[in-house]
Request: fold
Amino acid sequence: MKTYRKELVFNTDTRIAFINITPQIDTCIKESKIKEGMILVNPMHITASVFINDDEHGLHNDFTKWLEHLAPHSPIKQYRHNDTGEDNADSHLKRQIMGREVVVAITDGALDLGTWEQIFYGEFDGQRRKRVLVKIIGE
Ligand code: ZN
Reply:
């Protein structure tokens, strides 16, 4: 069995952002030379997500509006987590809803995704350096 590990780095211009990372994941699979196996992709931070959905601008606006409705950033004092001096309680909640990681099958050297499935990095407390782990196992 072969293994592959890589860290991708993101530093978004905005506090909340959705980035289609499918091309970078495709590159990782090519670098790994693994033809049949599984890939795990997860942020190494508790205020960001990796998830699979449609690469459609309106939907991303809908995600942002929905998440802000469920966990508004302000007023900051509404959250006990922010009693610690942090201001990112909403980011932790948004990440929890959007999920931590994705696991995808690799078949014939490529992501075995559904028709409209794309892999996204979801940032909820950006404007700083953050890492995403890519781990592939297979042969
Ligand atoms: Zn925090």
Notes: Strands lie at 2-10, 17-20, 37-43, 48-53, 102-107, 110-111, 118-123, 130-138. The first helix runs from residue 22 to 32. The pocket of zinc ion is lined by residues 81, 86, 88, 92 (CB under 6 Å). The chain has one domain: 2-138.
